[in-house]
Amino acid sequence: MAPSVAPSVARGAPSVAPSVAQIVVIAKEPVPGRVKTRLTPPFSRGEAAALAAAALEDTLRTVTRVPATRHVLVLDGAPGAWLPDGFAVLPQRGRGLDERLAAAFEDAHRELPAPTVLIGMDTPQVTVELLDTALSLLGGHDAVFGPATDGGFWLLGMRVPRPALLLGVPMSRPTTGAVQLRRLQEAGLNVATVPRLTDVDTAADAFAVAALLPGSLFAATLARTTPHRGSC
Questions:
Q1: Where are the alpha helices (DSSP H) in 29-96?
Q2: pTM score > 0.85 for this model?
Q3: N or C: which end of the chain has fewer CB within 10 A?
Q4: What is the pLDDT of residue 228?
């Protein structure tokens, strides 16, 4: 069970998106053996990479439909056929995930000093409406936070990015989201939250998320895979 998070949007808070804002997707190139390693087993490394590519492409397609000023992909690796038009591509830098997230905010903000919403490649069920809401919340809040069911977070937005608030947060743990949220609040930021989503980390996650996305590339890719019976 994920730890509890702060209450959602304050009543009466403005919900008008900033006139200039950007959405950043941080992702790895879907190379077998480098992505979705918790899916192997029950899936092969190639199948796990195919699922990662599908999740990434579905996510990027959704992001392109959000009327932000700029769409950015912060990538570890090289772009592939899964990348739609309209994205600025920046390289990831840093060692741990906390450093990479902090650098993504810093680099994107350097090129466009504007409110920034950052998501990953693990929630292909994200919708245009959710991302629109996150951007709008930055019109009246310092930050917006999207908790994940595993205790982490799937979205983080800041009206004025402060990358240092991510450094040192222990990543990929059941307490990651709670620690990150507390960091934001202790820095004096007014934080709104958006609905909790499930990251695709395990086979069970993959099937649960695909059930929410009939007709998606992710669901179609999962339907072509052959996990061992009883593995999830």
A1: 45-64
A2: yes
A3: N
A4: 53
